[in-house]
């Protein structure tokens, strides 16, 4: 090659940047719609402060609140300040707060009022000129989905949705992305008619969790696990998301939604996709999404539905030494509500890797304790050369990804009990994040908000994934709706503090299996 670089010459060093260095967001502003909600107070504002504290936001960053309240900028700044003090992960530092608060603005308005959006545009233009936000904006819709169409249209009308040149405009939406396949399609249609798909960031906060990203590291950075990660060795997979909290105070969102729509359609289906998908060609967003879409297209509910699904509703009981109400006594729920607070389903993944391996997904409120885990339960050894009673207490081998709390991985296998006889019992080998690494994991929302600002879409489900997840779940929802409408059955009761209704235990028992007791 001659001394001058040709136009298509690619500098081999260009991509050798040390990817361990965190990337810092460029000039931009985040507009939050729904600033008075719980999510904004407990997660979004604290995560923005934590990012600023870690030096990951530019000095020109601006945070803009939009709501009906008659607040001045300082009133909103005080709300953010209190939220940060109460909920931020990292320590409060006055100098970080001072810099952040200089870029805090508030726009008073309502979603259906053109003048409110004109005033939002004016505020953003002024910030671009004075603070240097560069005409780049993320619009975070932390509002009920029924308001999405209006807000998207207003952003479009006021010229904020599609800026010129290389300035960007992104929209961030929170679940629920619809309540079934049809409504998800129309929602996607509305959002995509204003924002192109590459500017839409759908939050599934489970994908921002460190332990969930570690599924990819565990599977694709190691040689050890892949040979046994298939139907030859795995008997079944259990994905559990158990919560001990009840639904007091959440009737407005939860009644009529239920556990399956609330978390199975999104978080648990995403965990299944990461566990069951094939190795992507690379970790580029498109390759990763292609593999998730492929495995979700091969996934379906096992039939018959009465044997392969279970739904429940918690009744009064004891939790953490306290007497707690049943769902029907919680404020805001009607005495006849059939909203499920527990759901379990059996899925089948029709691929060469997983044919014949059931994936059991379960979630519930007011269960024994808060725990999320993915357990690959292995087949028994084909032959046990021991005296019969010596293996009485030997279970099946299991590899358990502990998503939270106590993040880590457990390998469960049989070991000889010390003594003269060859008795074998289960033991655990543990990896724990807390003891293996010194640094704390960032909160899921820190990671996800930063990725929005960087325009990095890997951890955000695209509309095809959302629609496929509804396609998988819809038959169970329709089945339960039919039971309700024909008054054939209600969700099965289970006592608060337990592990769900009898029908969920029966779902596995019928196949000779049992749920793990995390
Ligand atoms: C949300 C659900 O998506 O996840 C809530 O709407 C649930 O019902 C929450 O409580 C649990 O999140 P985490 O991160 O605490 O497991």
Automatic annotation (TrEMBL):
Positions in coiled-coil regions: none
Gene3D superfamilies documented for this protein: Dihydrodipicolinate Reductase, domain 2, NAD(P)-binding Rossmann-like Domain
Domain Glucose-6-phosphate dehydrogenase C-terminal: 216-516
Protein residues bound to substrate: 205, 209, 243, 262, 365
SUPFAM superfamilies registered for this protein in UniProt: Glyceraldehyde-3-phosphate dehydrogenase-like, C-terminal domain, NAD(P)-binding Rossmann-fold domains
Keywords: Carbohydrate metabolism, Glucose metabolism, NADP, Oxidoreductase
Gene Ontology MF annotations: glucose-6-phosphate dehydrogenase activity
UniProt pathway: Carbohydrate degradation; pentose phosphate pathway; D-ribulose 5-phosphate from D-glucose 6-phosphate (oxidative stage): step 1/3
Catalysed reaction, written as an equation: D-glucose 6-phosphate + NADP(+) = 6-phospho-D-glucono-1,5-lactone + NADPH + H(+)
NCBIfam families referenced in this protein's UniProt entry, alphabetically: zwf (TIGR00871)
Protein name, entry field: Glucose-6-phosphate 1-dehydrogenase
High-level lineage: Bacteria, Bacillati, Actinomycetota, Actinomycetes, Mycobacteriales
